[in-house]
Amino acid sequence: MGTIAVTYGNAPTRQARQRHLYAVPAPTKQPGLRLTRRGRVVLFLVAIAVVLLMGVTFGGSTAATDQSGLPVAAQTITVKPGQTLWDIAVAANPNGDLRQTVDDIIELNSLPSAGELQIGREIAVPAY
Questions:
Q1: Chain Cα centroid distance, residue 120
Q2: What is the pTM of this model?
Q3: Cα separation of 77 and 119, whole Å?
Q4: pLDDT of residue 57
Q5: What is the rounded average pLDDT of the residues 56-69?
Q6: What DSSP line would sit under 25-59, residue for residue?
Q7: How many CB atoms lie within 10 A of CB 42?
Q8: pLDDT score at 39
Q9: How far is the first Cα of the chain from the last one, in angstroms, to the nearest whole number?
Q10: Is-contact 101 109, C-beta < 8 A?
Q11: Between β-strands 74-78 and 122-126, what pairing exists: parallel, antiparallel or unpaired?
Q12: Would you give the distance in Å from CA 106 to the centre of its chain?
């Protein structure tokens, strides 16, 4: 014959205790990054400092000295209608390099380009 176990009512049942072993603690949710007003100001100032440092490092450089430059011997001419820098360079330095003569005229008069001549303007031309 067999046996039957019967429980009546709310009789407590015995459950085995479970034991959990963790090698690493359970991850906790980290709050998102939050910048305070002071943190934003510091971040802004650091960014400005980096931009300025890059400008100083990679920017152009000039040097001022106490020595005066040598004056360039030059003559002054007035631009006539239809006259170009090439015509003026041929007249000023017929046997020389015309490209270099045009560059010298542009540099001496601080012209932005070779096409910036105005009729009646007086320009300096180096004497060769």
A1: 42
A2: 0.46
A3: 11
A4: 86
A5: 78
A6: PPP-PPPPP---HHHHHHHHHHHHHHHHHHHHHHS
A7: 12
A8: 93
A9: 135
A10: no
A11: antiparallel
A12: 30
